[in-house]
Amino acid sequence: MTNILAFDTSTDACTAALQVGDKIYSRHEIAPRKHAQLLLSMIQELLSEANIKLSDLDAIAFGNGPGSFMGVRFATGIAQGLGFGLSIPLISVSTLQMIAQAFHAKTGAEKIVSGWDARMSEIYWGFYVCDDHGVMQPQQEDALCTPDKLDKKSYAELGCTFAGNIFSDDTYPEARAMLTIATSKYNLNEILLPENAHPHYIRHVVYSVGVRSGSVRGKV
User: Fold this and answer.
1) What pLDDT sits at residue 204?
2) Quick one: 20 exposed, middle or buried, by C-beta within 10 A (0-12, 13-18, 19+)?
3) N or C, which end of the chain is more exposed by having fewer CB within 10 Å?
4) What CATH number does residue 86 fall under?
């Protein structure tokens, strides 16, 4: 029996879920700027509902971005703190992969371009395809570009659907969906020591004005 705690704070959603064997417990709330107030209490509620302790966890999955600079740092920091304290591994999961997984669970779509508003007139996006185990797998590295650089027509011709707020879709990253990805990664030993966990910003120059890094990769 594998017990995995998962959470993400990279967007306005504060989302947490707990898998204990074949049972899943979850919390999900759209709460801008309230992640620090909500996340730890959500985790405690989940543990109480499942009747287990932190020491019963086998791994912790966290959303490592891209997304809100502070939100991504917050989730990474909490995951590292718990991982160090419990001496258990971490599993990092892309925000965009979570959106694709949540959209797949909601609609059954198997080819998905997921995207999120990166601000500064740019967008984060990624291309995912469902594997034989129901896990949305990346077909490229998550990318950053201006909206006009995303060749939406070409992806539509491949049979893709589109998820995330840049497409006027209300699908947020969800920790329940993250557990599907995290379980697959755990079984494949795609885990991290806490000291090796890092946020994935994509936009590397965070504080500069008018100078930004990032490129479109793997474009069809």
Assistant:
1) 57
2) buried
3) N
4) 3.30.420.40
Q: Which of 8-17, 64-73, 81-90, 197-206 has the lowest mean pLDDT?
A: 197-206
Q: At what angle do helices 35-50 and 69-86 cross, to 10 degrees?
A: 40
Q: Which residues contact 189 (CB under 8 A, 6 or more apart)?
A: none
Rounded CA-CA distance 173/102 in Å is: 7
Judge whether 54 lies within some domain: yes
What is the C-alpha separation between 162 and 139, in angstroms, rounded? 15
Q: What is the pTM of this model?
A: 0.90
Question: 76 and 7: one domain?
Answer: yes
Do 188 and 100 fall into the same domain?
no
In tens, the pLDDT along 136-172 reads 999 999 999 999 999 999 999 999 999 999 999 999 9
Taking the C-alpha atoms of residue 65 and residue 85, their distance in angstroms, rounded to an integer, is 23
